Amino acid sequence: MAYVAVKGGEQAITNAHALLAEDRRGSPDVPEVGVDQIRAQLSLAVDRVMGEGSCYDRDLAALAIKQSRGDLPEAIFLLRAYRTTLPRFGFSVPIATEKMAVRRRVSAAFKDIPGGQVLGPTFDYTHRLLDFALAAEGGHVPEPAAMADAPLADDLPTIASVFSHEDLLEHETTALEAAEPYDLTREPMQFPATRDQRLQALARGDEGFLLSLAYSSQRGWGSTHPLCGEIRLGEVSAEFTPPELGFPIELADLTVTECTMLSEFEGSMEQPPQYARGYGLTFGHCERKAMSMAIVDRALKAAENAVDQVHPVQDEEFVLYHSDNVEASGFVQHLKLPHYVDFQASLQFVRKLRREWAEARSAKEAAE
After folding, report:
1. Which residues does residue 234 pair with via DSSP β-bridges, in sequence order?
2. Do residues 281 and 190 share a domain?
3. Can you tell me the distance from the alpha carbon of 78 to that of 69, in angstroms, rounded to the nearest whole number?
């Protein structure tokens, strides 16, 4: 039997695009969902697309979700592609999360953390039962939340300040002020990876992949079962220093989620016993991603802490090379595209092997 290429070409692709547009729109009897609705009511999906798409723009992320029919990795790909067309003005001033206008702040390690626990918006205490009221005609109007007894402090202490009097938390090393941060969007992956490169890759990494790695680490394939020192959600100011001014100006307020994970470190000849930390920071409200990122970040410190790297989550080349869902999706999905020449070569090779196998088998039977 001969295997030949399927014909169709440009017209077939045009028709495929038309069919895609029809499927995206769905039944014309149902009102079309608007970008503003996606931005407002599917905010967690929007936040994930912004974070893994490396572009903080709710309208563009909502548009990408609509265009991709809700396929979030495809939406992330669309936003990343658009991001590459944008001009680059420079690097912003590092955001000061200790000055965050907090909407949610919890610690699983300290019951009476300074500033108090702030539950904020969370699924943590819901019963995970379908709410059929949300499907009722005319929409669902939630009950207003009760007002707090007292306003939150402007600056809630961070987990680092809780340990400061005993110096029990490892100190983060900072790069020289003159050095520019590593830019993973413009520079290739390098190993051993610097901390800024590592955190960039994790921030852009696929939530599901990082969640699985974090889970594996907690279950014994990574020697890291940390405690959640702190999770905080809120708004921070993004600032930029124009060269012609020489001082920072505020560009916008960004919603971010920050997580610090704590785990015991027995110490070494150079470092005393203390708590090591893993760090996670994401755009928007993405707690599961920030927690997973922090656990994986802690596990990737194995080399610098002179710990044997025996688990996948401790291997930075494995983790960083395979965490990006845009690259992973492209590499897997390219298998759908024509590989006719490859297959013909493979087919000829397998046929040759079969002929040689048959000849060898016949020779063996004749000898017997």
Report:
1. 102, 256
2. yes
3. 12
Measured CA to CA, the distance from residue 253 to residue 142 in angstroms comes to 27
Q: Are residues 258 and 320 in the same domain?
A: yes
User: Burial letters for 188-221: b for 16+ Cβ neighbours within 10 Å, e otherwise?
Assistant: eeeeebebbbbbbbbbbbbbebbbebbebbeeeb
Q: Which residue from 60, 52, 59 is spatially nearest to 77, judged by alpha carbons?
A: 52
In a shared domain, residues 279 and 161:
yes
pLDDT at 115: 83
Regarding whether 190 and 313 lie in a shared domain, the answer is yes
Taking all residues of the chain, what is their mean pLDDT, rounded to a whole number? Answer: 86
**Is residue 340 over pLDDT 50?**
yes
pLDDT tens-digit series, residues 100-119:
999 999 998 888 888 888 88
Residue 24 sits in which domain range? 9-83
Q: Is residue 265 part of a domain?
A: yes
* 194 and 311 part of one domain: yes
Does 129 map to a domain?
no
Return the residue matching tokens 């279950």.
Answer: 219
Domain identity same for 43 and 104: no
Find out whether 114 and 162 touch, Cβ atoms under 8 Å: yes
Give CA 317 to chain center in angstroms.
Answer: 17
- One-letter amino acid identity for 92? S
Q: Are the beta carbons of 83 and 57 closer than 8 angstroms?
A: no
Per the domain annotation, does 185 fall within a domain? yes
Residues 202 and 249 in one domain: yes
- Least Cα distance to 277 among 258, 294, 293 occurs for 294
- Record the tokens describing residue 267, joined without a space: 């110490």
